[in-house]
Amino acid sequence: MIRALIALLGLALAFAAAVLSSVARESGNLFATAILASSALLLSAVVAVTTIPYLARRVLASRVRYALEYQITKEGAIYFAFVLVVAIAALNTGNNLLFLIVSVLLGAVVVSGVASAAQLRVLEIAAHIPEQAFAGTELPAQIIVRNQSSWLPAFSISVVSPKRSGNAKSWTWEPTVFQFPREAPGRKPWLRVRDLRLRRSQAPPPAPPILAQPVYFPYINPKGSARAELALRFDQRGRYAQNAFGIATRFPFSFLMKTRNVPLSRELIVYPRLERSEQFHEVLPLLTGEFEHHMRGRGHDLYLIRDYQPNDSARHVDWKSSAKTGVLKIREFAREEERRMRLVFDNPAPGDTTAESYEKGISLAASLAWYLTQENAALSFAAQGLPENTIWAFLHYLALAQPAADPSIIDSLPPAEVFNLVLTWQPRGTIVTSVWQSSYVLFLNE
């Protein structure tokens, strides 16, 4: 509103300056005519540059918000073909009855468009989708459609993902250097100036949509709402996102599929699949052995059987051994210390492994991290570019990880009194590290 008032004020001043310039020209004052005419042009230009585009964007955004997309259905194609045949017959014969039938048929199309547009404009969407999930598992979600009309019900409504076009191309400015004359062998330019170059670039492919299948609502009451419980499932790790959801309907005659896109951004990070693979079962006994240090204390595994001492508890008496030897015997157990381990993911360079092997390694790293966390292990993580040393940060890293030409992280591991479980695609025999004696390395390319 303020910008509109400023635009009106600027245009009024420009109009006044233009009128005064005409008066000055009639009176023969050329200097005043030039000043006033220039002021009128300058004010008009300022309003055109600063205010008009903003107001136009606001109006365009308001129109796009309620814009509908139309897609002809199979039934609609048959219907329009029939209307065309009747219209041709009416033109050839000049029969008034046929013209009346054509009018009724076209009127049905208009009624269909008005009825469907009227109900789509009063509908709103709410989507409750978690932000995290594991690949291969079902994720509960909820879609809610609300009818804002106080008297008009909604029929045959579907919530769909908007159509996506191909990879969009955009124009970007890139820094360059202007040289004159152009550099050539044996000739150096005598003028070098920083410059910008406009270049057309290919936009990155969009993230896959979250909602893959349409959600159908047969009827929604006036001022009511309908909700659908979904079980989403994603087979691939990665980032899924949607910037809008579509409300579509074929009501009332199914001639056209009308869709209104509602701006509603949702993003979902799908963590790698948790699988108990062969390599997982191979390393699991080793991890279990590392967890438990055979020291005297409280635990579950038997450490030794010794003679009874006055300060021992009677509940630890081994009655079977005492009966055999005739001397009271006590059982001692191995003490389970705090489990400390570091899971190291050595991300390979592009071309060092196949896509299948890389995905198996990602899944193995996620499965080991999740299992060790569930076993209450004091677990830390290491990987190239890992932002935080937490289980969720590591899973997020694995969800979006791709092969990168970064130096191996194994030789730069910080020294610590922990057991390192290293997952790498490097060939056996090429790893030299100071923590090798306290590490177990899984060579994923073998």
Outline of the structure:
It contains 9 helices and 17 strands. The protein has helices spanning 2-27, 30-50, 52-65, 74-93, 96-120, 278-291, 319-325, 355-374, 391-400; strands at 68-72, 123-128, 132-134, 138-147, 154-160, 169-180, 191-202, 215-220, 225-233, 238-249, 256-271, 296-307, 329-334, 340-345, 378-383, 419-424, 439-443.
Task: Describe what you observe in this structure.
This protein has 446 residues and is of the alpha/beta class. It has 5 domains: 2-65; 68-164 and 206-271, Immunoglobulin-like, CATH 2.60.40.10; 169-202, no CATH class; 293-334, no CATH class; 340-443. The protein is 35% helix and 31% strand. It has helices at residues 2-27, 30-50, 52-65, 74-93, 96-120, 278-291, 319-325, 355-374, 391-400; strands at 68-72, 123-128, 132-134, 138-147, 154-160, 169-180, 191-202, 215-220, 225-233, 238-249, 256-271, 296-307, 329-334, 340-345, 378-383, 419-424, 439-443. Helix 8 (355-374) links the parallel strand 14 and strand 15 (378-383).
Question: What descriptors fit this protein?
Answer:
Immunoglobulin-like; four-stranded parallel β-sheet; alpha/beta; 31% strand; single chain; 35% helix; six-stranded mixed β-sheet
- Residues in β-strands, percent: 25-35%
CATH superfamily of the largest domain: Immunoglobulins
Distance between the termini: 68 Å
Gyration radius (Cα, Å) is 37 Å
Count of DSSP H/I helices: 9
CATH level-1 class of the largest domain: Mainly Beta
Quaternary state of the chains: single chain
